[in-house]
Design goal:
By secondary structure, the chain is α+β, with helices and mostly antiparallel strands. The strands form two sheets. It has a seven-stranded antiparallel sheet, with helices on both faces. Strands 1-2-3 form a three-stranded mixed sheet, covered by helices on one side. Helix 1 runs antiparallel to helix 2.
Length: 255
């Protein structure tokens, strides 16, 4: 659901029952509409912020609501959430403004050059002259045969006409066909299409969680994916993986 639809829904729910506060209407006491708006925010903020509902707490106040975010520690992600809340307050002045706070110590993201010192090259197949090329990076001390996390960067020529979203839908269907318990989510990104899929061990397959991004450009499909041999990665690991694949550039791999 897009942001405008999410909060149009809030306005629709609250607008007919005294839920929208008039400017200068704060009295110092929490009113029923404050509680109603907090309830609506609890419903729609997880979609807007792309966070689990259990990681968001909304406390009503008099003319303001406090949003407490759990399990988000990476500094870049916290800034992103704070910016989203600021934009929301500016776009919907009819609603009680939100104040955001985070629980836990902030982890500073050093934002190293791609792919960064956390990875070493494990394998490289193909070159610039071939239609396909693959780089596989692993954690220092690991190999492509024995690894707990892997950064897979792949390009493949597909021609001048290609529907990336349809191809990814086929990829999702194939994964679910081989393992019906596979969970798949598309993730909005500025360039290309982001995704995450995961499944538990079973059907001869190990547990896996993959966070990735695919881009179609000039007849080529590029895939950048962080793969983990576990069904669930923690929030810090997930946000680092998202940040890594979001800024990945193919030209930097061969430098």
């Amino acid at each position: 659901m897009k942001r405008t639809l999410i909060f149009a829904s809030i306005l629709a729910v609250l607008g007919g029952c005294g839920g929208v506060r008039n400017v200068g209407d704060a009295t110092g006491a929490i009113e029923p509409r404050d509680v109603q708006q907090a309830d609506a925010y609890r419903t729609y903020l997880p979609q807007y912020l792309h966070l689990p509902a259990g990681d968001i707490r909304v406390q009503p106040g008099s003319g303001v609501a406090t949003v407490t975010i759990l399990n988000v520690y990476l500094s870049t992600r916290r800034r992103e959430i704070a910016d989203q809340i600021t934009q929301l307050n500016a776009q919907y002045p009819q609603l009680d403004p939100l104040q955001v706070q985070f629980v836990g110590k902030e982890v500073v993201d050093p934002n190293p050059s791609f792919p960064g010192s956390d990875w070493v090259l494990g394998d490289h197949q193909g070159d610039a002259r071939t239609d396909q090329e693959l780089y596989e990076f692993v954690a220092p001390g690991q190999t492509v045969d024995q690894w707990s996390r892997m950064l897979s960067c792949q390009r493949q020529y597909v021609g001048p006409v290609f529907d990336l979203r349809a191809a990814m839908e086929r990829m999702r269907a194939s994964l679910k066909s081989s393992n019906p318990d596979t969970q798949w989510n598309f993730i909005q990104m500025d360039d290309g299409i982001g995704y995450e899929w995961r499944h538990a061990a079973g059907n001869g397959q190990p547990a896996q969680d993959e966070v990735g991004r695919m881009v179609y450009r000039d007849g080529m499909v590029y895939r950048f994916a962080c793969v983990f041999q576990t069904q669930y990665i923690n929030e810090i690991t997930r946000m680092k993986a998202l940040e890594l694949v979001a800024r990945a550039k193919w030209d930097e791999l061969s430098q």
